[in-house]
């Protein structure tokens, strides 16, 4: 699986959009981009994933560049409950079988009141 | 959906003792995963099951570690002759094939 690079930490003001970048320059054509987050003392929680197109769900939006070498997770209106470590993961497509995930160290997002 | 349940939440043991953790996945999920997480690091994959079959094991899973899922439902992770380096959060996750993973809250192990 391709490796990802994320900034170690970011701050965001409550109510503002949080934009979390991820570089995955070695991503291959059949690798998806996944985002999970981990709130203190809890297990990771799935947020969103995508292959080529931008995706949006009730939690966030995922913007993937045209060359797929980077992506941005957007939390449109950050709340204090969004303070967490956010992991960007790339993994092979569903058709390869095992869908275990390989995490890096993520970005620690702190939402400031 | 009652979520993935792990027991115990915390375990303190002395070096050299054996410990066992239990994971109850979401009932319809046939895939179950174990991860380990140390302070400041992301979770590291240990092993996964499809039904009762253990299909993949990480090199992190030394011979002191054994995982089972005897009836394809709950799973246990046993660590024999614990060492201080085994201190970590042990996370369990479950999923349907080719679907997103749902994680439990983990078991925090402290080896004294």
Helical residue percent band of chain B: under 10%
Which radius of gyration of chain B do the C-alpha atoms yield?
A: 13 Å
Largest sheet of chain B: 7 strands, mixed
Give the spatial strand order of the biggest sheet of chain A. 1-9-8-3-4
Report the total helices of chain A: 0
Number of helices of chain B: 0
Pairing-aware structural class of the strands and helices of chain B?
Answer: mainly beta
| Oligomeric form | heterodimer
**Percent of residues in helices of chain A:** under 10%
**Strand residue content of chain A:** over 45%
Distance between the termini of chain B: 36 Å
The biggest sheet of chain A amounts to:
5 strands, mixed
Q: What's the total number of strands of chain A?
A: 9
Unreliable stretches of chain A, pLDDT < 50, 5 or more residues? Answer: none
Query: What's the end-to-end separation of chain A, in Å?
Result: 37 Å
Q: Largest contact between protein chains? A: A-B, 21 and 25 residues
**Arithmetic mean of pLDDT of chain B:** 93
Rg of chain A over CA atoms, rounded to whole Å, is 13 Å
How is this structure best described in words?
The complex is a heterodimer of chains A (113) and B (112). With 113 residues, chain A is mainly β. Chain A has strands at residues 9-13, 18-23, 31-38, 45-50, 55-56, 61-64, 70-75, 84-92, 107-112. In chain A, strand 5 and strand 6 form a beta hairpin. Chain B is globular. The chains are: A mainly beta (113), B mainly beta (112). Chains A and B meet through strand 4 of A and strand 5, strand 9 and strand 10 of B.
Briefly summarize what is shown.
Chain A is mostly beta strands and 113 residues long. Chain A has strands at residues 9-13, 18-23, 31-38, 45-50, 55-56, 61-64, 70-75, 84-92, 107-112.
Write the layout of secondary structure elements.
The complex is a heterodimer of chains A (113) and B (112).
Chain A: E1 9-13, E2 18-23, E3 31-38, E4 45-50, E5 55-56, E6 61-64, E7 70-75, E8 84-92, E9 107-112
Parallel strand pairs in A: 1-9
Antiparallel strand pairs in A: 2-7, 3-4, 3-8, 5-6, 6-7, 8-9
Chain B: E1 5-7, E2 10-13, E3 19-24, E4 31-37, E5 44-50, E6 53-57, E7 65-68, E8 75-79, E9 88-95, E10 102-103, E11 107-111
Parallel strand pairs in B: 2-11
Antiparallel strand pairs in B: 1-3, 3-8, 4-5, 4-9, 5-6, 7-8, 9-10, 9-11
